[in-house]
Amino acid sequence: MIFTTYWFFAFTALTLAVYWLLPVATLRWWFLAAACTVFHGHFAGPAGMAPIVVLMAITYIAGFSQKKWACLAAIILCGLTLCFYKYALFFIGIAIEPLSSGLAAQLSDGAKKIMPGAPPLGISFFAFEFVHYLFEVRRGGEPIRHPVKFLLFSIFFPSLVAGPIKRYPQFLAALETGSRQILASNFADGLRRIAIGFAKKVAIADNLTFLIDHQQPQFATLGLFDRWVFLAMLAFRILLDFSGYSDIAIGVAKLFGVDLPENFNWPYLARNIQDFWQRWHISLSSWIRDYIYIPLGGSRHGPVRRVTNGLIAFGLCGLWHGPAWNFVIWGLYQGVGLALCATYEKIPGVGPAISGVFKKEPTIGFVLTQIFVWIGWLVFFYPVAEALKMARLLFGL
Amino acid sequence: MSESTPQPTNSVAGTAARPFFRPWTLLAGFVLGLGLMCWAGRTVIQRDLHPKDVRFHPMIAPDSQYEPTMGEMRAFVRARCRPDQILVIVGGNSILLGVGQPADRVWTRHLQEVLGERYAVVNLAFRGSSPTDGGAFVAESLRDEFPRQIYIANVAALQAADSIGIESYRFILFDAYYKGLLLPWAPRDQQLKDYLADPAYKAARFERRLGAQADAVLHFRDFWNWWSATKFFTFATPYQPDPNLAYRARAKFKDEETDYDTLPFDQRFSPSVIANDTLITRAYSANGYAKNAQGLWQLADASREQFLRYAANAFPDQLKPRTLILISRNSPYYTRQLEKDLQNRDETAIKDTIAGFEKFGYAAMSYGQDFSPEDFGDRTHLTTAGGAKLAETTAPKIQALATQLGYLK
């Protein structure tokens, strides 16, 4: 975890001091851009930095030109780059392997020769932020003309590794306002968020990881109550790990006067799946909504299209988390949950009755939502067969 | 999926809400808190965190993700040695740690009894460590406070000992080095520089160095160890199989080192262990030896030079005369089965090792020649009886060394 390295601490402290010692905002932007480049170079290395720099340049030029075709081409390039670095081997495995294992092996070897050992650092976040930018510019939004500001939008170091996924109009507005004046309230808020983030991540989530790893092999021998406790630990581990990371990113950005979008809003208080996805990884779910679900047609073409679009969007959302089947299935599971949530009221006879119960007793909706979401984490973390077995055991089956 | 308006940013942070603390108060609290914790780290580590322990057993050692700090080990020594006593620090590996001997019968206790009140024996050995690891750095760092000191460690014949120790215990070197506790020693400085510059690990090692440099000022590891030893351990350890005990304060764990005496002799050796240890025993002196024209075993020049280079660089020159290197032998259970020729080769290697160390001013001796198979719990570790024999063999050498160094005047 980059945020728990001494390098990160030293870098942040030094960058922060120089940033606020500079007399004017313009100089701060230039300095921060240079510092972010150093940060990216340090953690990504030249091999990880090169594809991002190329994508960044192409995105900037395409946006600057404001040509729709150029933006579209750049969007496609971003998608292809992400697919190549993160999913090439997975796609070869599922699409080519069943047809010809020899060809699949050849393609895998070829891909491995071109690819660095690991996908470029933060490639998923870069690709999504660039696609958002190009999409908005193509739709008529004002491009970022100032190259330093574009650089800062691209590689702003607090959000570089694990988001939140930024939106450029909000980011630029926050940068321009926040970088002009040092505020004690920003420092206090930032430090508070950082402290909360570290407590969530290091003190709680990492220890839950130990307990989970310790108990998982014996899951079948645990009592029913302990199995549910295990599931709760799994659910809180991912929440506290990821939201802790987001808190640190948001807190560090705040020290520089920049507000990053929130990523979590008490998701385990959600009363239905739709509510959950408005509270969980908000920057990703809103991105999926704006740049996949709505462009596919959203809910505008009847219930069948609505459900299909939701499943596609969430299948991709799952895949975004990693090149493996369990992530895809987790995404589809969430998509099915959302489809049910959005349509059950229209089922003749039963729908309104169920809806009435949920309205009268909101706790029932809350409990069912959490059970659905928490069981979903089994698929997220474990191979599908193992997850199904564990899910059965949760109900004593 | 909802198509409602995107969530406004900062909906959670609650910046609009009235803060519980005023910003300046909170900032001052952060600064004051950090300052207090640094001060606490410096202060609390000056007391002995392990008053009941005779050694760094696995629950207060890296075996269980507990990394003792220099401050902690220095306090451990200070609590066990009066200024008027001659300090005997025992470093080295699990053999000198006393693996196989329970805490109340560990060999260093017997050594203390044999040496008497004039000496204070402190066991700072760790499993798998080299002569130049933890105990060595602690002894070196206390050279002015306890100028009458003897440092003991063990090696196998011709075993290399890097001046920067081994990877598992390098955190102790970093701690000592960046707190400025060590003597300037050019070979060590160069070796550390090369270690840090290794392109394959440059980023990770730079990170480690940065941590040690920050800790030298902030003392957060001292504070954390005090907390972990006396309050509760802050990170679960896979070493402790019972999750209910994973967070328990480390000082509450007893020294439960294996007691080989509880194992009948014929149960100490399983066929697979015998097979493996026989191979190791046969290879004890295999590297670099060949027979010369007279049919005697002779070490190749390259191997000799390499060993001498290690011996020359392992310790700063001024510390070599107070350093006693013990050359460990394998159990006679195994060595008696060797051909006479191989036994001769082992003896030659041991003599060469002693001569090599003595050439540079160290004191060196071997032990175990007259030990019986029952004195060993396995190929190398000693039983209580073996430990007592080690103490009795070593004590005269320590006393002679103390006299030679003028400690008894």
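The CA atoms of residues 33 and 152 of chain A lie 5 Å apart.
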